[in-house]
Amino acid sequence: MSAVKKVLVVGGGIGGQSVAIALAKKGVEVEIAERLDAFNVYGVGIIQQSNALRALDRIGLADKTMEEGYPYGQLKMFTAGGHFLGLAGAPPVEKYPSHNGISRRTLHEIMYEEAIKIGVIYKMGTTVTKIDNNENDVTVTFTDNTQGTYDILIASDGINSDMRALIFGEFKPRYMGVSVWRYAFKKHEDLDTAYMYYGKRSKIGFIPMCDETMYMFLVSAEGADNPWIEKSAYIPMLKDYLAEFPVKIAQDAREQITDPNLVNYRPIEASHLPDPWFKNRAIVIGDGAHATVPQLGSGAALALEDGVVLAEELEKASTVDEAFRAFMKRRYDRCMAIVNASETLAKWELMEFEGKPLPEGANLGKVIGQAVGTLMAPF
Ligand SMILES: Cc1cc2nc3c(=O)[nH]c(=O)nc-3n(C[C@H](O)[C@H](O)[C@H](O)COP(=O)(O)OP(=O)(O)OC[C@H]3O[C@@H](n4cnc5c(N)ncnc54)[C@H](O)[C@@H]3O)c2cc1C
What sequence ranges are listed for the domain FAD-binding (predicted)? Predict the structure, then answer.
């Protein structure tokens, strides 16, 4: 690798582990500083479209994620009452199926094991408090007051990235008016692919995670002021939403939702950094650079792609600046197309939940079709 020999990645999530594995496979010395003392990834799932699998293949992990996940075809869409509306979702790409459902915990473990195997060093319970970022290298101060000097720092510490604040100054994500509730179950015997049902106040989806398990997501609008919801309200609220869906899979799920500690409730935020996402020797990737509303289920796929592309460009270029510029050229428009399409879909969804008419000319099929076209294009 010509441009870098020693790299610090801050944040050991999907984007951080992707870039760490991709760089370590090219012979770079990689350390990951992770704020958590120990990973505790929640056990609901994630949708991987074919482009996510294609990116995982470039770091040698696509087959393993499909073995431990649940590869499936297109998504089946229904009315709340179960009338079949049609098929949607990504087409297969190269040798990969339209989708793979997988537990986030399993995906994390697959990436973690690979990273450890190829020599990535994890500094757990550690973050960076100060960055001296100049044209030749970057020196950081860690929380234990030790210092380290690296060729580059890659910030992959998520939507509320502290590293982004240290590099570029304060930057706040925006609340988008919608929330997502998730819960994991034993897989329903009828679930052969992903199912989605459209209600008046919410929409729900069931995604297989492996032969034995599935998860449900429910998208709702809890109010413009992003109200705090007490844990004690989770179960009654979810059951109330699910009453709108008389279909068996939803009613079976409704009965099985009993433990508020297993409900994952997330008000949805979005943000993006303007071009460029780098300054001197520090660069932001993943949600810290381009957090999308999950309406297109693609944020993690983009974070995986970021990792692969950054490693490729660092290998090709003779200087860091050249590599970072080439990375931006390949990533900015692609990521922004998905950020913008997801936000449009979320805004329209919110209007539907609020009973408001959609803007004149709103064309759901066109927005989704163009976004899927972008995702499936080579990256
Ligand atoms: C409800 C919901 C559903 C979603 N569903 C999908 C889906 O189906 N498919 C899909 O592709 N995407 C989905 N996404 C998006 C996806 O989860 C994110 O895009 C993805 O996790 C981003 O990866 P990341 O590595 O950038 O950040 P993260 O996954 O957030 O990882 C950040 C890591 O950095 C660590 N960290 C944070 N701060 C610091 C710090 N200061 N110092 C050190 N470490 C730090 C964190 O502990 C964490 O380990 C969904 C998102 C939401 C909210």
Answer: 6-319
Q: What percent of the chain has pLDDT over 70?
A: 100
Nearest residue to 155 (alpha-carbon basis) of 3, 268, 324, 298: 324
How far is Cα 345 from Cα 366, in angstroms, rounded to an integer? 11
Domain of residue 117: give its range.
6-63+100-173+270-351
Identify the pLDDT of residue 1: 62
Ligand 1 centre to CA of 288 (Å) is 9
Strands (E), the chain: 6-10, 29-34, 45-49, 70-72, 75-79, 84-88, 99-103, 121-124, 128-133, 138-142, 147-150, 152-155, 174-186, 195-198, 202-208, 213-220, 264-272, 278-279, 282-284, 291
pTM for the complete prediction? 0.97
Pairing of strands 147-150, 282-284: unpaired
CA of residue 232 to ligand 1 center, whole Å: 26
Low-confidence ranges of the chain (pLDDT < 70): 1
Question: Tens digit of pLDDT for each residue in 258-270?
Answer: 999 999 999 999 9
Which atom of ligand 1 is nearest to 163's Cα? Answer: 41
Atom of ligand 1 nearest to the CA of 10: 43
Which residue type is seen at 39?
Answer: F
The CATH code of the domain that includes 331 is: 3.50.50.60
pLDDT at 2: 75
Query: Which ligand 1 atom sits closest to the C-alpha of 159?
Result: 30
Domain contains 130 = yes
328 domain residue, yes or no: yes
Pocket of ligand 1 (CB under 6 A): 10-16, 33-36, 46-47, 52, 127, 156-158, 162, 180, 266, 286-287, 294, 297-301, 303
Q: Of all protein residues, whose CA lies closest to atom 39 belonging to ligand 1?
A: 157
Q: Kindly give the distance from the C-alpha atom of residue 13 to the centroid of ligand 1, in angstroms, as a whole number.
A: 6
Q: Is residue 260 part of a domain?
A: no
- How many domains does the chain contain in total? 1
Write out pLDDT tens, residues 246-296: 999 999 999 999 999 999 999 999 999 999 999 999 999 999 999 999 999
- Euclidean distance between CA atoms 59 and 104, whole angstroms: 18
Residue 338 lies in a domain: yes
Compute φ and ψ for 153, nearest 5 degrees.
-115, 130
